[in-house]
UniProtKB/TrEMBL annotation:
GO molecular function terms noted in the UniProt entry: catalytic activity
Pfam families reported for this sequence: PNP_UDP_1
Boundaries of every Nucleoside phosphorylase domain copy: 12-304
InterPro entries in alphabetical order: NLR-like, Nucleoside_phosphorylase_d, Nucleoside_phosphorylase_sf
Protein name: Nucleoside phosphorylase domain-containing protein
Organism superkingdom: Eukaryota
PANTHER family for the chain: AAA+ ATPASE DOMAIN-CONTAINING PROTEIN-RELATED, ATP/GTP-BINDING PROTEIN-RELATED
Length: 595
């Protein structure tokens, strides 16, 4: 077997929600490399590494018993912090099919998300705006990557001529892992029963032995048992659909959904994704688990066939992380000589919730502060460096901020208390009931190359003069690499009566507990500055570096001791004492903490 790939060589993520899905996906690997030798210390995910075709893949599964979009967002957030060169994700597993006259979907078939018009092929059906009492879903998710769409088209054309290889891959999987035959084999057409949409399950047993066979939908017998592949819209949400009437209504209202599942929308904003679902039930009252294993195997088999159709040259590998650069040896074939000190660290997604709101203009990106609790006091902001949007820092918008904050405050009393402290007077003892934060806009400002910027700032005379006092007193120093803001935010201290995940109107019928005007900072991302004394005595100091001379009075003497010190940023962001969890933004995810 070839040497185990380095961490930065993994470019494809395969995400599963259930252990049976991960088993099927792992069984499709051409080579299995086991667990990673290194991952982000804060990353609690469990990974299996391997190769499919020419691609090195990372397989991860949601924690046992934890499902839905928020859990999926947390998983992918930490995955891309450990595997910095992941380019896209395949979401592989099972789903509930939506059979119709135009789409004769059967159990064991495969549905693949496919964009249509402005729709990315994934619709978050339980999130949108209220119109005449109904939820109109938003289609603001990212499109799948072009490299996958191109391979998908090529694969579909080949299937029209020679058929797909799903059954072949499943058969090889069962030969390689005989223990899987009992559960992952084809269940048989006699167990594929489709009842009329409005006919409910009449018995307490998981099977349909006692259901009325007269309510079965008549369907033509297929010529073979080969799984069919359907391309179209997949519905994603936090609700388990197990009602035929609701299934058909949601499908019709949302771009003719072919399949329902629960994780994809949580990943689409974090990383380019393609969703592959094996159909294990019809999302009606007759759901059972008889087809789950085979459906998972069919989805994994299609994922393998798709990856084998993607040329490796279309997925470039870039060395991004200096942490990884220190842990891995670069391949001679890369023809790239990179110094670990020269590689830039993208800011880690960790934000500390402040004790109070700060006007956006009162705190500057790339400023240095002595006390994280009071970032607008005793700080340094260079007058010689002007930051340019797009070149020095990025600004991104959270589309799901209002919904997430309300849900997290409901499940975390500590987080709820921290939010209340932001908005309410100090005399307030607490807030009873659920709360909601409504904001016209939530933005994230992040430095793109904090280490380079810090070195440029620390080489200036004005910074070195300001730093002298902090160094003499050995005070810690923090660099502002990012912050989060809300615009015209409202704090609502009473239970919200609207359905879950509905985007609420700001024209509320009752008065909020607190209002803020304009854009305010409420969370900041800090990097601690690390100092090192490099030498004593008279030393020639190089210009435009992060080294400089300082003079300290010696105790009990009139002379001054000349020292040369250097400064750099720590690799990881600062965190507070209270861990609030991972915030699933539509752009990436961040760890939220507080004091």
């Amino acid at each position: 077997m070839a040497p185990k790939p380095d961490t930065f060589e993994y470019t494809v993520a395969m995400v599963c929600a259930l252990a049976l899905e991960m088993a099927a996906t792992t069984a499709m690997l051409d080579e299995v490399y086991g667990k990673p030798e290194w991952q982000d210390p804060r990353d609690k995910n469990n990974y299996t590494l391997g190769r499919i075709g020419q691609h090195y893949v990372v397989i991860a599964c949601l924690p046992e018993g934890v499902y839905g979009m928020t859990a999926a967002t947390s998983l992918i957030t930490w995955m891309i912090s450990s595997f910095r060169n992941i380019k896209f994700a395949l979401i592989v597993g099972i789903g509930g099919g939506v059979p119709s006259v135009s789409h004769d979907i059967r159990l064991g078939d495969v549905v693949v998300s496919k964009p249509r018009g402005t729709s990315p092929g994934i619709v978050q059906y339980d999130f949108g705006k209220a119109v005449n009492g109904e939820i109109i879903a938003n289609s603001s998710l990212d499109m799948p990557p072009k490299v996958l769409l191109t391979a998908m088209s090529s694969l579909a054309a080949g299937h029209m001529m020679t058929g797909n290889k799903i059954s072949i891959h499943v058969s090889k999987m069962l030969e390689r892992y005989p223990r899987m035959k009992e559960k992952f084999s084809y269940p048989g057409t006699d167990k594929d029963l489709l009842y009329e949409a409005d006919y409910g399950h009449t018995a307490d047993t998981p099977t349909c032995d006692q259901c009325d066979s007269g309510k079965l939908v008549p369907r033509a017998t297929r010529k073979n048992t080969e799984p069919a592949i359907f391309y179209g819209t997949i519905g994603s949400g936090n609700l388990v659909i197990k009602d035929g009437v609701m299934r058909d209504r949601l499908a019709k209202e949302n771009n003719n959904i072919l399949c329902f599942e629960m994780e994809a929308a949580g990943l689409m904003g974090q990383l380019p994704c393609l969703v592959i679902r094996g159909i294990c039930d019809y999302a009606d009252a007759h759901k059972n688990k008889a087809w789950q294993e085979y459906a998972a195997a069919a989805a994994a088999a299609y994922a393998k066939e798709l990856l084998c159709a993607v040329p490796s040259r279309d997925i470039s590998v870039e060395v991004i992380s200096p942490t990884l650069a220190l842990r891995t040896s670069f391949k001679a074939s890369s023809n790239v000589q990179v110094s670990a000190a020269e590689v830039q660290t993208p800011p880690s997604p960790s934000f500390i919730l402040t004790d109070r709101f700060h006007l956006k203009d009162s705190i500057s990106l790339a400023s240095l502060v002595l006390d994280r609790r009071y970032p607008n006091q005793d700080y340094f902001s260079s007058s010689m460096i002007s930051l340019q949007k797009g070149e020095d820092f990025s600004v991104s918008i959270d589309q799901n901020f209002n919904e997430f904050v309300g849900a997290c405050a409901k499940s975390s009393p500590v987080f709820k208390k921290a939010l209340a402290k932001l908005f309410l007077p100090p005399s307030t003892k607490g807030v009873e009931g659920d709360i909601q934060i409504m904001s016209k806009q939530s933005s994230v400002y992040t430095l793109l190359q904090p280490r380079t910027l810090f070195k440029n700032i620390s080489s200036t005379t004005e910074f070195q003069d300001w730093l002298g006092d902090a160094w003499a007193r050995r005070k810690p120093l923090y660099f502002v690499v990012g912050y989060r803001t809300v615009t015209d935010a409202q704090f609502i201290g009473k239970e919200i009566k609207s359905p879950q995940n509905r985007r609420l109107s700001r024209n509320l019928s009752y008065k909020p507990r607190y209002d803020t005007d304009g854009e305010r900072i409420y969370a900041i991302c800090f990097r601690k500055v690390k100092f090192e004394r490099t030498s004593e005595g008279t030393v020639q100091v190089l210009g435009s570096t992060n080294r400089w001379r300082v003079f300290n009075k010696q105790r009990g003497a009139n002379s001054e001791l000349e020292q040369v010190i250097s400064a750099d940023l720590c690799e990881d962001d600062e965190v507070g004492t209270n861990d609030f969890g991972v915030f699933p933004t539509q752009n990436r995810g961040e760890l939220w903490t507080g004091f």
